[in-house]
Specification:
The complex is a heterodimer of chains A (367) and B (488).
Chain A lengths: L7 H13 L3 H25 L4 H13 L2 H26 L7 H19 L5 H30 L3 H21 L32 H20 L1 H11 L1 H6 L4 H25 L15 H11 L7 H14 L1 H7 L4 H24 L6
Helix pairs in contact in A: 2-15, 3-4, 3-13, 4-8, 4-9, 4-11, 4-12, 4-13, 5-6, 5-7, 5-11, 6-7, 6-11, 8-9, 9-11, 12-13, 13-15
Chain B lengths: L2 E10 L2 E11 L4 E6 L5 H8 L7 E6 L2 E3 L4 H6 L2 E4 L11 H7 L9 H14 L15 H14 L4 E5 L7 H16 L3 E6 L2 H7 L2 E6 L2 E7 L4 H9 L16 E11 L4 E10 L3 E6 L5 H8 L7 E6 L2 E2 L5 H6 L2 E4 L14 H7 L10 H14 L15 H10 L7 E5 L7 H16 L3 E5 L3 H7 L2 E6 L2 E6 L5 H8 L7
Parallel strand pairs in B: 3-8, 3-9, 6-7, 7-8, 13-18, 13-19, 16-17, 17-18
Antiparallel strand pairs in B: 1-2, 1-4, 4-5, 9-10, 11-12, 11-14, 14-15, 19-20
Helix pairs in contact in B: 3-5, 4-5, 11-12
The chains are: A mainly alpha (367), B alpha/beta (488).
């Protein structure tokens, strides 16, 4: 357990120390210059691939906010990000790098799909959806606890354990999609037989987004913020994250609390997996790579939010907008939509770099 | 020689060790200076003998203000001090030690010095062999040598700092007789002690010091109660150690063998009673930390048993030790105790033994504010612990100790604290001990070990000796820490 990694919350302590040293102006300067640097670098890359940066940025914007339908798409991408961020806020608080979140999303989708396939013809749709949600939560929680168990009992760092479990979850979907759950007759990696619209989350008429999925995401974020701020559980998790040894000596059952954090994060990620199966803009089936990188993206979101649950709400919304908006690059300019990913990555890197620079420029005041 | 100290101030950090002390010693008298440990006696005497310069205040000899900046200058003016631990050279002979202090000539006149030494010794009924090695002398004999040496150098005010802690009762009688002879010769003696009986027996007048201030003066004979009150204020218990109840053992180590990668503590058996205070001495990493950690349930013994309240706890997890009432406080403040990035309020909230679901932040902040005041932590409830100074981190650590532990295990509990805080903290510990808490503490301060413990375990390369404190002194303890008595 006593690994040499700097835990995320320890890193936060370092940042925190600096923020206190009454240099708010410097803070804002660095933040805004981080965004400018990211935009400039993105522009350079767009120029390299032969696109006009201004045009591309405008497309991304109109692609995400140009119409209610597009906004609805953004919202549907936002929901799983919110759920994953809510979960990661907990594991990060406990000082854990839950890289396995991607697999936890996948296992949530697998469990949800399994329950729906088994029960879709025998129970009313709402009951099936609800049971599938519970199953998704359970699947993700179990997968999270595997990572935690490996760490606690097998002395496997959660980063490597999580990576391994991601592989297993991914391969398992391929096996299920091509094997036991294959479409009658076809059996391609495009996925399992889509569920009937009665098993889709209900959406507003003309606005293709379900209030349920966004609401669940927002509720999850608020709940986690409350847990971390107001409960002993949250306080103990933060204590573990910042100093495991001290927390242990204080008598906090760190093993149990860590497993709990993994289970909770995995559960929320599993719920995101369920949303990816039943959500309004989902394909309504299980397919390989169903997690679509939402888990990894959420790691970046929470890091950028400086581990704050509430700050990850606007940041994840922004990310969802970039993800959805950059689809227009492909549709309208024959550019690959993964350029959106490049822009996101640049943004994250430049902000993290600014945080690094900040702690170098403003030496922390010890005492 | 009449000596007057006027309004002496001496600060160590923010805390005054001497806070405006005025004291007058008449020529040819035996004057006692009484006070608890940490009352400021030693500081005052170091000021008078030139070891320390006062921050403020005057020293007058026979009415004339004097200034001096070293013990040598003080000796020239006629002030000499016999230290608690003799400042001599054990590797030299008595004769060489005797000669060492004499700055007057370049060429040594050994013959004359020798006869002076013998003459002075005879006057005071001391038996000193000039050719003996000082390392072979007892503490009492080394004191005698030091007294003779100071007299030879012309000292007419002799300061004795706790001279009886380390010597036998025959040597004490001899010393007291010599002191009386010296006052007959118009020498002035300042006798510093925290032992009431000695001061009463020996001195004609006594000044009492407490918390850096003179709390009273009294001509002998003077009722003990009055002296005690001047020393301790209203508290009417004499003696710093808590009286030890002889009943049940709370911590029973039997045939314990502990090891880490470089050290082994073998076959240690020890019973610690409720209310007992045990000091663990030894150079850093001599095995004392192993015993403390094993008693806390943090390391498993290789062999042997640990019983707490007659329950075998060997090999049980740490949290069961916690539940059994064991509290462990490590030396690393921010590594093994406090949590950097968390506020004082959060720390006090975390100490809640049976936490409900919701944190009561208002209550936690109130508790934090109380402890901040009680333990004089310089910080706010919202201060994060890494922003505190080392001493304040230590105070925070101490304030976090749960109030009702049965066994308190501490590494360097008062490290980094000023005199006043140390006294205050030990008052709390000893109150706990009186209520039945057994205390084991590691310290590198000999004074702390000697003053506070009922027994001292000295560790040397994993081996252990048990010393009973009333019979041991700083020198013996120091020698023991250095390995004396561990041969064979």
């Amino acid at each position: 357990m006593g690994s040499g990694w700097v835990s995320p919350s320890e890193a936060k302590v370092l940042n925190h120390r600096v923020i206190r040293s009454d240099t708010r102006a410097m803070e804002w300067f660095l933040r805004s210059s981080a965004i400018l640097v990211a935009l400039a670098l993105s522009a350079v890359i767009l120029l390299i691939v032969g696109a006009s940066p201004w045009d591309a940025f405008a497309l991304i914007f109109s692609g995400s906010f140009g119409s209610s339908a597009k906004l609805a798409y953004v919202m549907t991408a936002w929901a799983p990000m919110l759920l994953c961020s809510a979960g990661l806020v907990v594991t990060f608080a406990a000082g854990l790098w839950n890289i396995g979140i991607e697999g936890q999303v996948v296992m949530g989708a697998v469990f949800a799909t399994g329950v729906m396939q088994a029960l879709q013809n025998s129970l009313p749709p709402n009951a099936v959806l609800l049971l599938a949600a519970s199953a998704g939560f359970l699947g993700g929680a179990l997968w999270g606890m595997f990572a935690g168990g490996l760490k606690l009992y097998g002395n496997v760092n959660e980063i490597f354990g999580g990576l391994g479990l991601n592989f297993i979850a991914g391969s398992m979907t391929v096996y299920l999609v091509l094997g036991p759950w294959k479409r009658p007759g076809i059996g391609s990696t495009s996925g399992t037989e889509p569920f009937s619209p009665s098993l889709w989350l209900p959406a507003f008429k003309g606005f293709q987004v379900s209030p349920i999925e966004v609401l669940i995401g927002l509720v999850a974020i608020v709940l986690m913020a409350v847990v971390l701020r107001g409960t002993y559980l949250g306080l103990q998790l933060k204590a573990i994250g910042r100093n495991q040894r001290s927390a242990f000596l204080m008598g906090i059952p760190i093993g149990r609390r860590m497993l709990f954090a993994f289970a909770l994060c995995g559960g929320l990620a599993g719920l995101a997996g369920w949303v990816l199966v039943v959500g309004t803009s989902a394909r309504h089936n299980l397919f390989p790579l169903i997690s679509s990188g939402y888990g990894f993206l959420a790691i970046l979101i929470v890091l950028l939010a400086n581990l704050s649950a509430l700050w990850s709400v606007p940041i994840s919304f922004f990310f969802a907008a970039v993800v959805m908006g950059s689809l227009q690059l492909a549709l309208q300019r024959q550019l690959d939509s993964s350029l959106g990913g490049v822009i996101q990555g640049l943004l994250v890197l430049s902000i993290l770099m600014m945080q690094g620079l900040r702690s170098r420029l403003l030496p922390s005041k010890k005492r | 020689m009449k000596v007057e100290l006027k309004d002496i101030y001496k600060h160590f950090g923010p805390v005054p060790a001497n806070d405006g002390v005025t004291l007058s010693v008449e020529s040819g008298t035996l004057h006692g200076l009484l006070g608890e440990n940490g009352a400021g006696k030693s500081t005052l005497m170091k000021v008078l003998s030139g070891f320390l310069s006062p921050d403020r205040g005057k020293i007058l000899i026979d009415g004339i203000p004097v200034r001096f900046f070293s013990p040598a200058q003080a000796v020239v003016l006629g002030i000499g001090m016999l230290h608690q631990d003799p400042l001599d050279f054990p590797a030299l002979t008595v004769m060489d030690n005797f000669l060492l202090g004499d700055p007057s000539r370049f060429r040594l006149d050994r013959q004359r010095a020798r006869s002076n030494l013998l003459e002075l010794s005879a006057q005071l009924d001391f038996k000193l062999d000039p050719n003996a090695w000082v390392s072979n002398l007892s503490i009492g004999e080394r004191q005698q040598l030091e007294i003779v040496r100071l007299l030879w150098m012309g000292v007419s005010l002799l300061i004795l700092d706790e001279p009886t802690t380390a010597i036998s009762s025959q040597q004490k009688d001899k010393l007291f007789a010599a002191l009386h002879k010296l006052t007959d010769q118009k020498k002035t003696i300042l006798f510093v002690s925290h032992k009431l009986e000695e001061v009463k027996e020996l001195c004609g007048k006594v000044t009492v010091l407490a918390h850096g201030k003179v709390t009273g003066e009294c001509k002998m004979p003077c009722p003990t109660e009055k002296l005690v009150e001047m020393m301790f204020g209203q508290i009417i218990t004499v003696g710093k150690r808590s009286a030890l109840p002889l009943d049940n053992s709370v911590l029973d180590l039997s045939h314990l063998t502990l090891n880490d990668w470089r050290l082994e503590v073998k076959d240690l058996s020890l019973q610690i009673r409720a209310g007992e205070v045990i000091g663990l001495a030894g150079l850093e990493g001599s095995g004392q930390h192993l015993v403390l950690k094993a008693s806390a349930g943090l390391i498993r013994p290789k062999a042997g048993h640990i019983r707490i309240n007659h329950t075998d706890m060997t090999g049980r997890p740490y949290h069961q030790f916690l539940e059994a009432g064991v509290t462990y406080m490590a030396a690393g403040r921010l590594e093994e105790g406090l949590i950097a990035g968390m506020t004082l309020t959060e720390h006090f909230a975390l100490m809640e033994r049976h936490p409900p679901f919701w944190v009561n932040w208002a209550l936690a902040e109130e508790i934090a504010a109380q402890h901040i005041q009680e333990f004089k932590i310089r910080g706010q409830p919202t201060t994060t612990v890494e922003e505190l100074s080392g001493g304040n981190q230590q105070r925070t650590l101490l304030s976090l100790l749960p109030p009702h532990s049965k066994i308190l295990l501490m590494e360097h509990p008062t490290r980094g604290l000023d005199l006043e805080s140390t006294e205050y903290i030990w008052e709390i510990f000893l109150n706990r001990a009186r209520e039945g808490t057994a205390i084991l503490f590691i310290s590198s301060e000999l004074d702390e070990l000697l003053d506070r413990s009922h027994r001292i375990l000295v560790f040397f390369g994993g081996r252990v000796r048990v010393l009973e404190t009333p019979q041991v002194n700083g020198i013996r303890l120091g020698e023991s820490i250095g390995g004396k008595g561990f041969e064979s």
